Amino acid sequence: MGTTLTRTLHPHTGTMYIAESIRSNIEKGIPHENSSHLDVVTISLGVAISEMALNGTSVISSEELVKEAEIALYKSKE
Length: 78
Description:
The protein is mainly alpha-helical. It has one domain. It is 36% helix and 0% strand. It has 2 helices and no strands. It has helices spanning 15-27, 62-76. The longest helix has 15 residues, at 62-76.
């Protein structure tokens, strides 16, 4: 079983829609020919969303946002 981690940042409120779209498109049927466990490739996602301050900046640092997304990713694998 292989693992590839990819981060994407989206500067708008459609983040959950984008994440679900990525997940559903991947799981629609990319064959996993070398797997004895599953017939198709699957994906686990971790999403974190930051509110914006009045001046247009994130209320948390980008490092904290990535950390929250990684925590969500590992929870999604449980």
